[in-house]
Recover the amino acids of this structure.
C-alpha cells in the first residue's frame, strides 16, 4: 500500500512538472511567409493555439490582410529586408488592432485605404517602432492610441494621411502616451497632423497639417517642428508645455500658436520657441477671449525666450467684452511674455516689447520663410538673441538640435553653434552630430559561429549569408561603436548595483548591466552592415540574452545610442 502511494505521488509530481514546464515554456519564433513557413497569414499565426504570450511572429516581405492582436506578441518584419505590408481597403476598418498590453510592432508597413479607416488602433499598451503608417480615405487615421495603458509610437516612425478632414495621429485619449522620433504629415483638405491629450508627450519629431499641425489638450512637446497651414499649434484644453520647438503657419488669418477658449484651463507655456506666421492677416501668438458659460475659460499664453513674428501682428491678446452681458462670464485672453524677440503687440499683453529684457531686432535667421527651405538656425554671431534669454524651471535641457542650453540660454529654438554666414550669402553648413537609425539584425536568435569577429575594421554594404548581421543607416561618415552588453546579478549598495561578493551577500539583490566587448567600425553614410559571429578572438558568448548598443561619433559629437537585443543558444 505504501509502495502504491509512493508510485502515485511520483506520477503526480511528474505530471505537475510537465504542466509547469509547459506553462513556462520559453518564447518561440513563429514564421509567416507566402510558402515554406509555419503560416501564410499573420492572423493565422496569431490565432493558432500553439502561439502563446511572449512569442515573436517574424514576417517575411509580402502583402498581408488586416489583423487583430489578442495575445502579448512581438510582430516584426525580417530585419534588413523590405517591410511587410499589412493593408485594408474597407470603410470603418482597423488594419492592425491591438488589444493586449505589451504588444510590440516593428519594421512593418501598415496601410488603411477606406473612409473613416485606421491603420493602427492601439486599444492596449502597444510599442510601435520602425513602422510606416498610411491612411488615404476621408476621415482616416494613421494611428489612434486609446488604450488604458500607455503606448509608445517611435522612434523611426513615418505617418502620412492624405484623406480630407482627417487626423493622422491621435495620442493620449485616456493615458499619457509617448510619440518620439516621428514624421507626421496630413495633406488632405482640413486635415490635422497630431492630436495630443491628457499628459501625452511628443519629442524629437516633425509634424505638419493643412489645418493644424499640432493640437494640444493637456500635452507636452519638446524638440518639435510643427508646420501648419492655418495654425502651427492650437491649444484646446488644459495646461500645455512647448519647449525648444519651431512652429509656423502659412495660411491667411492663421496663427503660429493659438490658445482657443475651452474647458478650464486653456493655457500654453512656451519656452525657447520660434513662432512664425506669414499668411495675410496672420499672427504669431494669440490668446482668445471668452464670453459665455462659466464652465469655459479664455485662452492664455506664458512665453519666455521666444522669437515671434506675424504678418498682421506678432503678439496678440484679446480684451473681454465690456460690459459683460448679463448672466455670462467674460474673460480676456492674456499673453505674458518676457526675455523674448518680437516687434508688435496688441491687447492685454503683459511685459510688452519696451520692457527691459525684450528686443525687436532682426534675429538673423539662415532662412526665415516657412516652407520646404525654412531654416531658423541663427546665421551669425551678431544675432541679438544669442545668450539673451533667461534660465527657467520649465526650460528643456537642449535646443531643437539637442545642443545643451548654456546659462543664460539664447532666445528661440536654436543655440548658436559658432558658424556664421559668409558675407552676402547664406550660412555655412553647421556641424551636426551624426544620426544612426534603422538598426536591424538578420537573426535575433543564433548559435555562436566558428569565426572570430574583429574588434576594429570597416563596415560594408554587401550581404552576408552566414551568421547574424547587424545593419544600420548613417546620415554622415562616422566611427560607430557597438557595445555588447548583458545583465548580471548584483547586490544593492546605495543607488549602485555592485558585483556580488561575500561581503555584500546580505544586501538586496539587483541586476547590473555589464559591457563584455566593444566593436569599432569606420562607417560611411547610408547603409552599413557588420557581421557578428558571437565570438571575439577565442572568446565565445555564453548562451543567454544580450544587447548591442550602437553609438556613432565624429568631430561634432556623438549620436543618441540605439539598441538591438539578441539571444545566444546552444543548438
Amino acid at each position: 500500500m505504501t509502495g502504491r502511494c509512493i508510485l502515485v505521488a511520483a506520477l503526480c509530481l511528474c505530471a505537475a512538472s510537465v504542466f509547469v514546464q509547459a506553462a513556462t515554456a520559453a518564447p518561440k519564433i513563429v514564421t509567416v511567409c507566402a510558402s515554406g513557413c509555419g503560416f501564410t497569414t499573420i492572423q493565422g499565426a496569431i490565432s493558432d493555439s500553439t502561439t502563446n504570450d511572449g512569442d515573436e511572429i517574424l514576417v517575411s516581405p509580402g502583402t498581408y490582410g488586416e489583423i487583430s492582436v489578442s495575445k502579448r506578441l512581438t510582430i516584426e518584419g525580417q530585419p534588413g529586408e523590405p517591410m511587410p505590408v499589412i493593408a485594408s481597403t474597407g470603410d470603418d476598418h482597423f488594419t492592425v488592432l491591438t488589444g493586449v498590453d505589451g504588444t510590440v510592432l516593428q519594421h512593418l508597413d501598415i496601410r488603411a485605404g477606406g473612409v473613416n479607416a485606421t491603420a493602427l488602433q492601439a486599444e492596449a499598451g502597444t510599442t510601435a517602432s520602425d513602422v510606416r503608417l498610411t491612411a488615404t480615405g476621408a476621415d482616416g487615421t494613421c494611428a489612434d492610441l486609446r488604450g488604458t495603458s500607455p503606448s509608445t509610437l517611435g522612434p523611426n516612425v513615418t505617418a502620412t494621411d492624405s484623406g480630407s478632414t482627417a487626423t493622422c495621429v491621435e495620442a493620449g485619449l485616456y493615458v499619457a502616451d509617448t510619440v518620439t522620433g516621428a514624421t507626421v504629415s496630413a495633406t488632405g483638405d482640413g486635415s490635422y497632423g497630431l492630436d495630443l491629450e491628457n499628459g501625452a508627450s511628443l519629442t524629437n519629431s516633425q509634424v505638419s497639417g493643412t489645418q493644424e499641425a499640432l493640437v494640444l489638450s493637456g500635452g507636452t512637446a519638446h524638440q518639435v517642428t510643427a508646420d501648419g497651414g492655418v495654425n502651427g499649434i492650437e491649444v484646446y484644453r488644459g495646461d500645455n508645455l512647448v519647449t525648444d520647438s519651431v512652429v509656423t503657419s502659412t495660411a491667411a488669418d492663421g496663427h503660429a500658436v493659438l490658445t482657443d477658449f475651452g474647458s478650464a484651463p486653456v493655457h500654453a507655456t512656451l519656452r525657447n520657441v520660434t513662432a512664425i506666421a506669414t499668411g495675410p492677416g496672420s499672427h504669431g501668438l494669440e490668446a482668445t477671449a471668452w464670453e459665455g458659460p462659466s464652465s469655459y475659460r479664455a485662452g492664455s499664453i506664458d512665453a519666455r525666450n521666444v522669437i515671434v513674428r506675424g504678418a498682421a501682428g506678432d503678439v496678440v491678446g484679446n480684451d473681454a467684452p465690456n460690459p459683460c452681458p448679463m448672466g455670462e462670464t467674460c474673460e480676456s485672453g492674456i499673453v505674458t511674455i518676457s526675455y523674448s524677440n518680437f516687434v508688435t503687440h496688441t491687447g492685454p499683453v503683459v511685459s510688452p516689447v519696451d520692457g527691459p529684457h525684450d528686443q525687436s531686432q532682426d534675429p538673423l535667421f539662415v532662412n526665415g520663410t516657412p516652407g520646404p527651405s525654412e531654416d531658423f538656425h541663427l546665421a551669425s554671431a551678431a544675432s541679438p538673441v544669442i545668450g539673451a534669454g533667461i534660465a527657467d524651471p520649465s526650460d528643456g535641457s537642449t535646443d531643437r538640435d539637442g545642443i545643451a542650453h548654456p546659462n543664460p540660454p539664447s532666445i528661440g529654438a536654436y543655440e548658436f553653434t559658432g558658424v556664421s554666414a559668409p558675407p552676402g550669402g547664406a550660412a555655412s553648413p553647421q556641424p551636426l552630430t551624426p544620426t544612426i537609425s534603422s538598426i536591424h539584425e538578420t537573426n535575433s536568435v543564433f548559435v555562436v559561429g566558428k569565426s572570430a569577429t574583429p574588434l576594429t575594421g570597416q563596415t560594408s554594404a554587401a550581404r552576408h549569408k552566414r551568421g547574424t548581421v547587424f545593419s544600420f543607416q548613417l546620415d554622415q561618415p562616422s566611427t560607430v561603436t557597438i557595445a555588447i552588453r548583458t545583465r548580471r546579478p548584483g547586490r544593492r549598495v546605495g543607488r549602485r548595483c555592485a558585483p556580488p561578493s561575500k561581503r555584500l551577500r546580505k544586501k538586496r539583490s539587483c541586476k547590473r548591466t555589464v559591457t563584455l566587448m566593444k566593436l569599432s567600425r569606420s562607417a560611411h553614410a547610408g547603409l552599413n552592415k557588420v557581421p557578428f559571429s558571437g565570438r571575439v578572438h577565442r572568446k565565445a558568448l555564453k548562451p543567454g540574452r544580450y544587447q548591442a548598443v550602437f553609438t556613432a561619433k565624429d568631430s561634432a559629437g556623438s549620436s543618441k545610442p540605439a539598441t538591438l537585443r539578441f539571444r545566444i543558444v546552444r543548438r
